[in-house]
Structure to design on (56 residues):
């Protein structure tokens, strides 16, 4: 079983949170954000759906 790593860092000067997930294999439930979210997949792929459109 692959180890999951979840790291959260908050920058006081920029006032942003940064999240790093490694080895997460379960899907996230349907949800939305009231703020901008930027994602970066370094290795592998993620399926994302938005307004009934799917993206890989």
């Amino acid at each position: 079983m692959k180890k999951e790593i979840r790291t959260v860092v908050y920058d006081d000067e920029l006032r942003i949170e940064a999240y790093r997930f490694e080895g997460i294999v379960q899907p996230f439930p349907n949800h939305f954000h009231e703020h901008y979210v930027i994602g970066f997949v370094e290795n592998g792929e993620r399926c994302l759906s938005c307004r009934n459109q799917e993206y890989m």
